[in-house]
Design brief:
14 helices; membrane; ABC3_permease_C
Length: about 375
C-alpha cells in the first residue's frame, strides 16, 4: 500500500510538471464524458417511461388508429361504462391540447381533467407553490408541472397563452410521475371549450386496474365493449402506449447510443495519445528511475496512475457539467403529445465517472508498456 501511494504521488507530480498538456487532456476527456453523460441521461429518462414494472396498473384508452391528441376523440360517457368492467378501479377522462404533435424540444401540453378527480386519481401530486384551492375556484386556472414552470419561468399568478388557450397559473406541482411535471392541468370543461373540441368529448381515458396481472384482460374487454361503436378504442398499458405512440422520439433517443460510443472511443484515443507522447519524451527519465532502484513494473505503474488521474479528473468535470446543464435547462422532448423530461440522475453521473476511470486505465496500458520495455543502457544512449 505504501508503494502504491508513492507511485501515485509520483504520477501526480509528473502530471503537474506538464500542466498545459494535462489540462488540455482533462478538458478533452471532460468534453467526451459530457457527451457520454448527456446520452446516458436521455437513455435513462426514456427507460423510466417505457420499461414496464410489475407494479404498473394503468391503461390508456385511445381512439383506434389515432395518434396525435387532436385526432383522438372519445365520448366522455365511456367513463361510466369502463368503470363497470370487472377489475377496473377508476377511469379518468382527459382532454389534451398540444402545440406540436411532432418530435420537438419545446412542447406545451394542457391536460383537462375533472376538478374533483385530479387529487383523488393522483394523490402523490404535491403543490410546491400556490394552492390547490385557487385552482379549484377559478375556471381558467392551471396547475403547472415544476419542469414546465422552470422551463417557461412561470410563477403562481402569472398568465400565459399557448395552443389558443390562455390560463392563469394557480400553482406549481411536483409528482413522482414524469409526465405530470411537464404539463399544465386545467379544468376539463374549460379546455373542451377553449380548444373548440366541444363538451362531452375527451382525448383519452386513463384506467387504473386493481390487479396488474389483469392489464391485458381488461384492455381486451374495453376494446371489445366499444368495437361496434362509432368511436372504437385502442387500449394499451401506459408505458407500452408511450413506447408505441412516441416511436419517433424512441428512435431518435436510440440513435444517440452511437454518439455515446463515439465519445467513449474519442476519450480512449485522446488519453492514450497523451500518455504515449509523455512516455516517449521521458525515456531518459524512466531509465534513471530504474537506475536508482525502480523496477520496470514500478515505471509502468506510474504511467497507469497518470491515466487513472486524467480519466478521474475529466470524468468528474464532464459528468458534473452535464448534470448541471440538464438541471438548469430543464429540457423536455415531446412527441404526439407525450413528453420526456431529461433529468440528470445520480447513477448516470457515477457510471460516467467509472467509465472515465476505466478508459484512463485502459488507455494507459500500451504507454506503460512502452515506458518500461526498453533496457536501461539503450534508453540512456537514445535519450
Amino acid at each position: 500500500m505504501h508503494t502504491l501511494r508513492k507511485l501515485s504521488a509520483l504520477a501526480l507530480k509528473q502530471l503537474l510538471r506538464n500542466r498545459l498538456r494535462s489540462i488540455l487532456t482533462v478538458l478533452g476527456v471532460a468534453i467526451g464524458m459530457f457527451l457520454y453523460a448527456a446520452v446516458e441521461t436521455m437513455q435513462s429518462s426514456l427507460k423510466s417511461v417505457t420499461q414496464s414494472s410489475p407494479d404498473d396498473n394503468t391503461l390508456v384508452v385511445y381512439r383506434e388508429n389515432r395518434f396525435c391528441p387532436s385526432t383522438s376523440r372519445l365520448p366522455e360517457h365511456y367513463q361510466s361504462e369502463i368503470e363497470r368492467i370487472d377489475g377496473v378501479v377508476e377511469a379518468l377522462p382527459i382532454q389534451i391540447a398540444v402545440n406540436n404533435c411532432g418530435a420537438s424540444l419545446d412542447v406545451i401540453t394542457f391536460r383537462g381533467v375533472p376538478t374533483d378527480s385530479l387529487q383523488a386519481y393522483n394523490p402523490d401530486i404535491e403543490i410546491t407553490a400556490g394552492s390547490f384551492e385557487q385552482w379549484r375556484n377559478r375556471s381558467d386556472a392551471a396547475l403547472v408541472g415544476q419542469h414546465f414552470a422552470q422551463r417557461r419561468g412561470l410563477q403562481p399568478g402569472d398568465q400565459f397563452e399557448a395552443v389558443g388557450v390562455r390560463v392563469w397559473v394557480a400553482g406549481i406541482i411536483s409528482s413522482p410521475e414524469p409526465q405530470d411535471n411537464n404539463v399544465a392541468y386545467v379544468h376539463l370543461p374549460f379546455l373542451q371549450q377553449a380548444s373548440r373540441i366541444g363538451l362531452g368529448l375527451v382525448t383519452q381515458f386513463n384506467v387504473r386496474v386493481a390487479d396488474a396481472s389483469n392489464l391485458q384482460t381488461v384492455a381486451d374487454q374495453i376494446d371489445a365493449l366499444f368495437a361496434a361503436d362509432q368511436s372504437p378504442t385502442d387500449t394499451r398499458p401506459e408505458k407500452a402506449f408511450f413506447a408505441q405512440t412516441a416511436s419517433e422520439l424512441v428512435e431518435l433517443v436510440g440513435f444517440t447510443r452511437w454518439l455515446g460510443l463515439g465519445a467513449v472511443l474519442a476519450v480512449l484515443g485522446l488519453v492514450a495519445n497523451a500518455l504515449l507522447l509523455a512516455a516517449r519524451s521521458r525515456v531518459k527519465e524512466s531509465a534513471i528511475l530504474q537506475t536508482v532502484g525502480f523496477s520496470r513494473s514500478s515505471v509502468a505503474q506510474v504511467m497507469v496512475w497518470e491515466g487513472v488521474f486524467l480519466g478521474l479528473a475529466g470524468g468528474l468535470l464532464g459528468s458534473l457539467s452535464a448534470a448541471l446543464f440538464f438541471r438548469l435547462k430543464s429540457f423536455t422532448l415531446g412527441n404526439e403529445g407525450l413528453t420526456l423530461a431529461l433529468r440528470p440522475q445520480l447513477p448516470v453521473i457515477l457510471s460516467g465517472l467509472l467509465v472515465a476511470i476505466a478508459l484512463g486505465l485502459l488507455a494507459s496500458l500500451w504507454p506503460a508498456y512502452v515506458a518500461a520495455r526498453k533496457p536501461i543502457v539503450e534508453s540512456l544512449r537514445s535519450a
